[in-house]
């Protein structure tokens, strides 16, 4: 009986927690990958990619505020969904 209760509890736990989503590296992500971040649509995703092409890799998540259309508040909301891998690794490899 306890095994059944445990199985039911596990079922509901995983049902309501949903799948874990990996953070998106803003220095390597394509526009399509950037669109998976809450608050980023096609225009903002393309603006991020264009900014990155023109200015090089982002050094921190805060650098996203330099992209037209992204405010400090919007960057704070997406901070949990993004990561910035060491920009020196990406120098010359980003698109």
Verbal overview:
The radius of gyration is 18 Å and the shape is elongated. It has one domain: Orthogonal Bundle (DNA polymerase, domain 1), CATH 1.10.150.280. It contains 5 helices and 2 strands. Helices cover 47% and strands 4% of the residues. The longest helix has 16 residues, at 2-17. A two-stranded parallel ribbon has the order 1-2. It is mainly α. The termini are far apart.
Number of contiguous helices = 5
From the N-terminal CA to the C-terminal CA, the straight-line distance is 57 Å
Task: Kindly name the structural category.
Answer: mainly alpha
Task: Identify the CATH class.
Answer: Mainly Alpha
CATH topology annotation: DNA polymerase, domain 1
Query: How much of the polypeptide forms β-strand, as a percent range?
Result: under 5%
- Largest sheet composition: 2 strands, parallel
The CATH H-level superfamily is AF1531-like domain
The CATH level-2 architecture is identified as Orthogonal Bundle
